[in-house]
């Protein structure tokens, strides 16, 4: 039992250390982790939005470091009005609203909720020469105005 606890502790320590990088200028600085960088739409992660003004915007990262090593691969968009989900649409191959999403979203009235979730992100690591997909656990939620 102690062996399992020690193994879990070791894994947690190693995971925590991945967020730090060696600084050759004798300063130790914490490297921003792509795992905690928020995905945004139109530069926002939530709040009110006039969607008609942002039909050409994309899901991206506000953090410059995250932009270098992350890319949104796919996402789902849900529109809810009066607490009832009315439309589920998905872009399986990109970070922008599809033509169908644009046509549908402009039909909804102010006060409806627009949610981007099931966001798949490609994380590209220069150190490890590879790419890894993961889900962004945090949905982006807007109230349409």
Care to describe what's here?
- There is one protein chain.
- This protein is of the alpha+beta class and 145 residues long.
- The chain has one domain (36-144).
- It has helices at residues 2-17, 64-69, 99-105, and strands spanning 39-41, 46-49, 59-61, 70-81, 84-91, 113-125, 130-136, 140-144.
- The longest helix is centred in the N-terminal third of the chain and has 16 residues, at 2-17.
- The N and C termini lie far apart (56 Å).
- The relative contact order is 0.19.
Q: Quickly count the domains.
A: 1
Distance between termini? 56 Å
* Secondary structure: helix percent: 10-25%
Number of strands: 8
> What structural class do you assign from the helix and strand content?
alpha+beta
- Average pLDDT over all residues: 76
Q: Give the percentage of residues in beta strands.
A: 35-45%
What is the succession of H and E elements?
HEEEHEEHEEE
Tally of alpha and pi helices: 3
Q: Based on CA inertia axes, which overall geometry fits?
A: globular
The value of Rg in angstroms is: 19 Å
Keywords, separated by commas or semicolons:
single chain; 145 residues; alpha+beta; 6-stranded mixed sheet; two-stranded antiparallel sheet; 3 helices; 8 strands
């Amino acid at each position: 039992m102690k062996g399992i606890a020690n193994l879990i502790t070791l894994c947690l320590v190693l995971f925590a250390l991945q967020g730090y990088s060696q600084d050759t200028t004798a300063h130790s600085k914490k490297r921003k982790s792509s795992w905690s960088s928020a995905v945004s739409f139109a530069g926002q992660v939530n709040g009110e939005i006039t969607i008609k003004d942002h039909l050409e915007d994309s899901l991206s990262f506000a953090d410059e470091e995250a932009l270098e090593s992350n890319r949104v691969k796919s996402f789902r968009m849900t529109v809810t009005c009066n607490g009832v989900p009315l439309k589920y649409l998905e872009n399986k191959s990109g970070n922008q609203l599809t033509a169908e999403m644009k046509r549908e979203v402009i039909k909804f009235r102010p006060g409806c909720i627009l949610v981007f979730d099931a966001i798949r992100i490609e994380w590209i690591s220069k150190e490890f020469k590879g790419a890894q997909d993961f889900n962004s656990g945090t949905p982006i939620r807007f109230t349409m105005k």
